[in-house]
Amino acid sequence: MRILGVDPGLNATGYGVIEAEGGALSMITAGVVRPPARQALGLRLRILHEALTQVLSSQRPALMVLEALYTHHDYLTTATLMAHARGIVCLAGAQHGVPIVEYFPTHVKKAVTGHGTASKDQVARMVGVWLAMETSTLASDTTDALALAV
């Protein structure tokens, strides 16, 4: 089964595609989309949509795993901006007929590392173990997306 993990953000959206076959996991592709920060919101969202559409079209995942939105009440502006990016991710998935499931970051961290409060470095190292690959050169948005896929 081919699975696309997406760590949505307006400044950086990480994505990772893995193949799960017979109990083995392997990375197919991964990266990060970084729309120019000084561009208008609509253009940034279009860039994100086009990039995800390309990944969905070329990789044809059977499932998309998306980080669920969680925010503290002190960061409502951040949550609102994140919601724009999440909406684009959901739209792209729906346009390609890909089912979407959501997990909170603490659940993903616990599943991958055994601890729901694991650091980004711990998540990256365990993603490397799960996928039998070196992750030290990948952006944290990318390793978070791969963790979602795992």
What does this protein structure show overall?
With 150 residues, the chain is an alpha/beta fold. It has 5 helices and 5 strands, in the order βββαβαβααα. The protein has helices at 41-59, 76-95, 105-113, 120-131, 140-149; strands spanning 2-7, 13-21, 24-33, 63-67, 100-103. The protein has a 5-stranded mixed β-sheet with strand order 3-2-1-4-5, sandwiched between helices. A hairpin with a 5-residue loop joins strand 1 and strand 2 (13-21). Helix 1 runs parallel beside helix 2 (76-95) and helix 4 crosses helix 5. It is globular and about 40 Å long.
- The helix-and-strand class reads alpha/beta
Q: Report on the biggest sheet.
A: 5 strands, mixed
Secondary-structure element series = EEEHEHEHHH
- Spatial order of the strands in the main sheet? 3-2-1-4-5
Shape call: globular
Instruction: Let me know the average pLDDT.
Output: 92
C-alpha termini separation: 11 Å
C-alpha Rg (nearest Å): 15 Å
Task: Write the SSE topology.
Elements (H helix, E strand, L loop, with lengths): L1 E6 L5 E9 L2 E10 L7 H19 L3 E5 L8 H20 L4 E4 L1 H9 L6 H12 L8 H10 L1
Parallel strand pairs: 1-4, 4-5
Antiparallel strand pairs: 1-2, 2-3
Helix pairs in contact: 1-2, 4-5
